[in-house]
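Quick one:
INPUT:
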């Protein structure tokens, strides 16, 4: 059985190959969040890929708000058993279930909401978490959001609502990579002290300094789980590097939404040894 880090390496291979294959997509944030998705889907999340249902009763749920990082989401879903790994080869192609932003009308297992219209995922996750409370379901809801996405006002309305309604079965993680499509987040729209913001909005707040260290990510998510059930929603502010794992992509917004050419793909794959089996 592959280790979590071996799985993450293979998922990074999947990401760059998928985006290269159609010369379209968003590799930067996908690569930066690979440890998170691997830790979540292969270690932390209580889920049953073989019996996927839209209502998600009796299992933990995950919602991706920043849906443009669909490559890492699809790779994690496929590698954890939601659908055949070979289907990754259809990414962004006509009539594929793996659209550039996740959608629901294709009925792709693992996808419960259409996402990519930034700012909406927090509201959805809160609604799902409240539904679990009302239904007496003790399982948790996890969500992921970009730090640039926090420019959206709806996010903060939802954050206030979650605290007000004591949605303490929700763990929302912010990919705090400091980059968005137009440049560094501090230059596009300075957000101030995010840790303090979530705290004063009434959330339990954790800062994950090493969001690309697998052990640290697992530990932070487990700690977040231990904080649930205490009357407050939980936020994990996860510091990552956009483009992590490929030296010429790392740490810059320039790889937010462009695909590698043939030579760049070869250079990227040379840094990512095949650990499982390529699709």
């Amino acid at each position: 059985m592959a280790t979590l880090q071996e799985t993450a390496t293979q998922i990074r291979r999947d990401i760059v190959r998928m985006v290269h294959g159609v010369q379209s997509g968003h590799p930067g944030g996908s690569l930066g969040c690979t440890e998170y998705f691997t830790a979540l889907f292969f270690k932390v999340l209580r889920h049953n890929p073989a019996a996927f249902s839209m209502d998600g009763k009796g299992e933990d749920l995950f919602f991706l708000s920043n849906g443009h990082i669909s490559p890492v989401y699809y790779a994690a879903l496929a590698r954890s058993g939601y659908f055949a790994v070979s289907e990754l080869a259809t990414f962004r192609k006509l009539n594929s279930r793996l659209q550039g932003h996740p959608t629901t009308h294709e009925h792709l297992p693992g996808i419960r909401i259409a996402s990519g219209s930034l700012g909406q995922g927090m509201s959805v996750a809160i609604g799902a978490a409240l539904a679990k409370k009302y239904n007496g379901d003790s399982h948790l809801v996890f969500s992921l959001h970009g730090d640039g996405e926090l420019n959206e006002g709806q996010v903060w309305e939802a954050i206030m609502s979650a605290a007000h309604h004591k949605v303490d079965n929700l763990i929302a993680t912010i990919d705090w990579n400091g980059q968005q499509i137009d440049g560094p987040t501090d230059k596009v729209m300075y957000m101030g002290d995010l840790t303090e913001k979530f705290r004063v909005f009434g959330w339990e707040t954790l800062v994950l300094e090493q969001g690309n260290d697998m052990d640290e990510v697992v530990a932070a998510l487990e700690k977040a789980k231990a904080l649930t059930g205490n009357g407050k929603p939980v936020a994990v502010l996860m510091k990552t590097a956009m483009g992590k794992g490929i030296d010429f992509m790392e740490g810059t917004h320039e790889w937010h939404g462009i695909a590698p050419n043939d030579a760049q793909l070869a250079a990227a794959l040379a840094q990512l040894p095949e650990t499982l089996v390529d699709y």
